[in-house]
Amino acid sequence: MIKLVGLDLDGTLLNDEHKISNENKAIIDSLKELGVKVVLASGREVESMIWASNELKLDTPLIALNGAIVTDNKGEKIIFDKPLNLIKIKDLFIDLYNNGRFMLIFFKDEVIATDNNDDYFNLFIKYSNVIPKRVNNVVKYLDDNNLWDSVYKIIFSDEEEVLIKLRDDLSGKIDDDYNLTFSMPFYLELYDSNVSKGIALEFVANIYGINNEEIMAIGDGENDLSMIEFAKIGIAMENAPDFIKERANYITSSNIENGVFHAIKKFIYNE
Fold this sequence. Notes:
The chain has about 270 residues and is an alpha/beta fold. It folds into 2 domains: about 5-80 and about 195-265, HAD superfamily/HAD-like (Rossmann fold, 3-Layer(aba) Sandwich); about 85-190, Hypothetical Protein, Haloacid Dehalogenase-like Hydrolase, Chain: A, domain 2, CATH 3.30.1240.10. It is about 35% helix and about 20% strand. The chain has 11 helices and 14 strands. The strands form 3 sheets. The chain has a 6-stranded mixed sheet, with helices on one face. Strands 2-1-12-13-14 form a 5-stranded parallel sheet, with helices on both faces. It has a 3-stranded antiparallel sheet with strand order 3-4-5, covered by helices on one side. Strand 7, helix 5 (about 120-125) and strand 8 (about 135) form a beta-alpha-beta unit. Helix 2 runs parallel beside helix 11. The protein starts with a strand and ends with a helix.
């Protein structure tokens, strides 16, 4: 019996207007009545997840920044956190910055952005409830505020082909302490290798005494793969990349066709 459902937000629970459909909302309400825990797991920062938790009236922890931070349902109490060791790759980071890469840098209570690309800055705002602080000199900002050891995640935003090349390049310059995954085709994310949605989902499940045989997880991005593979029933959205679909137990319909609703109907209600 499934006792916990882990849900990604963008491209999964949310439609292309970044909203929760009435169908998805209703099926999640019914899960709560059954006593099934619903846990939101996103690459988003905590502040951009609270609205969804509130709208669904969830009382479960929030898994944010790909699992780098786990908080209570209101985002007020940090239950777990694991920052990125940015000091170790400080010179590499400075080189990337000096080369004009557009970056978003995530802290516990703040997001900053390099001040060099309006298009990618505005794109982020479409997917977030937080407006990043645009910083003219990011390196100086980190130095002046002593923040090198307080970064949880970095997003590089660009065209997919450019980011694939960047990942190949970075993979040869960083070690196993770091993860590089796509959350969307235009988002390449860097975070600690001991962080993932799967690890965080296991952490939350342990709080409730639930094992992976009792877990279902649904997602569409590369950063969802860890929880899709951890769960007994790992489900990929129709809009997910092929390599995610190949490693899932089942492929549901897309996020604009209420794929979450249909997956829950099939595997929990047997309909």
